[in-house]
Design brief:
There is one protein chain. The protein has about 270 residues and is α/β, with parallel strands linked by helices. The chain has 2 domains: about 1-75 and about 160-180 and about 185-270, P-loop containing nucleotide triphosphate hydrolases (Rossmann fold, 3-Layer(aba) Sandwich), CATH 3.40.50; about 80-155, no CATH class. The protein is built from 11 helices and 10 strands. It has helices at about 45-50, 90-95, 100, 105-110, 115-125, 140-155, 170-190, 200-205, 230-235, 250, 260-265, and strands spanning about 1-15, 15-30, 30-35, 60-65, 65, 75-80, 160-165, 190-195, 210-215, 215-220. The strands form 2 sheets. It has a 6-stranded mixed β-sheet with strand order 6-7-8-3-9-10, with helices on both faces. A hairpin with a 2-residue loop joins strand 4 and strand 5 (about 65). Helix 5 packs across helix 6. The relative contact order is 0.20. One of its GO terms (molecular function) is ABC-type phosphonate transporter activity.
C-alpha cells in the first residue's frame, strides 16, 4: 500500500496565486524521493502540505491510507535553517525530538524517559555525531548542525522524513556528508523520505526517484537513468525552441534562491 497519496491536490494563495496545480502521485514505503525544480515551482508548498503546515485548497492527501489532518507526529521534518537551540548540546537538541511524547513542561525541566535518551544517542550515532553528543550547537559547523537536525527528526520516531533544502547553505563536501547520513538513516530505518534540493548533481548521487516540479505541476517522475539533460532543461527552463541557448546552471546545481526563500515570497503573495 502506498505510504503517501496525493490526489488532485491544488493550493491557491490570495485567490489567484497557484502554488500547486492538480497534483497527483503516490510514494511507496521506504522510497527516497528528491523534488527538483526552479525556485517557486511548488516544492516547499508540497512539503508543507505533507507536514500539515499548509492545507490544500482542493484535493486530498493520505498517509498510510488516512486523510492528513493537521500536523502528524509520524512525519519528521528537517529544515534548511536547522533551528537548533545554540546553547544546548547536540544531545539536548536531538532529545527535543521527543517533545510530542514528553510534553513541554517535562522537556523544559529535563525530565526525559531513559528510552528517549537512548533513542537520542542512537540517532546521533546514526548521523556520525555520537562523539560530539556533549558539544554545544553554537560551536558546531553548519554541516554538523544539520546532522543534529536529522537526529532530532529521528528521535521523533517518524515513519516519514521530509527535508526542505537541507544542504542549501553548505559547501559541496558538507552537503554530501549530510545527504549521505540522511540516506543512511532512511535505509537503516526503512523511512519514506522526501527532500527538495537545488543541487542537481548531488541529487543524482542519492535519489532513488525524482519528481520534477514546474509551475506547480509534476512534469517528471522517474529514476536517475531517466533524468537526462533534456529532462532537466524541461524541468528548470520549460520547453525550448530548436537552437535556443539553454542556461547551464541546472547541471552544476546553481539555480538561484532556495525554496525556503521562495516560501517567504509566497506568504506575501508570490509562488512557493
Amino acid at each position: 500500500m502506498p505510504t503517501i497519496e496525493f490526489e488532485n491536490v491544488s493550493k491557491i494563495y490570495d485567490e489567484d496565486t497557484v502554488a500547486l496545480d492538480d497534483v497527483s502521485f503516490t510514494i511507496d514505503e521506504g522510497e527516497f524521493v528528491i523534488l527538483l525544480g526552479p525556485s517557486g515551482a511548488g516544492k516547499s508548498t508540497m512539503l508543507r502540505v505533507l507536514n500539515g503546515l499548509t492545507q490544500p485548497t482542493e484535493g486530498s492527501v493520505r498517509i498510510g491510507g488516512k486523510e492528513l489532518q493537521g500536523n502528524r507526529s509520524e512525519v519528521g521534518m528537517v529544515f534548511q535553517e536547522h533551528y537548533l537551540i545554540e546553547s544546548k548540546t547536540a544531545f539536548g537538541n536531538a532529545l527535543s525530538g521527543a517533545l510530542s511524547r514528553n510534553g513541554l513542561v517535562r522537556s523544559a525541566l529535563g525530565l526525559h524517559a531513559d528510552a528517549d535518551k537512548m533513542t537520542a544517542l542512537e540517532a546521533l550515532q546514526t548521523v556520525g555525531l555520537l562523539d560530539e553528543a556533549g558539544q554545544r550547537a553554537e560551536s558546531m559547523s553548519g554541516g554538523q548542525k544539520q546532522r543534529v537536525g536529522i537526529a532530532r527528526a529521528l528521535v521523533q520516531n517518524p515513519e516519514i522524513v521530509l527535508a526542505d533544502e537541507p544542504v542549501a547553505s553548505l559547501d559541496p563536501k558538507a552537503a554530501r556528508d549530510v545527504m549521505r547520513y540522511l540516506k543512511k538513516a532512511a535505509t537503516e530505518q526503512d523511512l519514506t523520505t522526501i527532500t527538495s534540493l537545488h543541487q542537481v548533481n548531488i541529487a543524482r548521487e542519492f535519489g532513488d526517484r525524482f519528481l520534477g516540479i514546474r509551475d506547480g505541476e509534476v512534469i517528471f517522475d522517474g529514476d536517475a537513468d531517466d533524468l537526462t539533460m533534456d529532462e532537466m532543461d524541461r524541468i528548470y527552463y520549460g520547453e525550448t525552441k530548436s537552437g535556443e541557448t539553454i542556461p547551464t546552471g541546472a547541471a552544476s546545481g546553481e539555480v538561484g534562491e532556495t525554496d525556503a526563500e521562495a516560501d517567504a515570497a509566497t506568504d506575501g503573495g508570490g509562488r512557493a
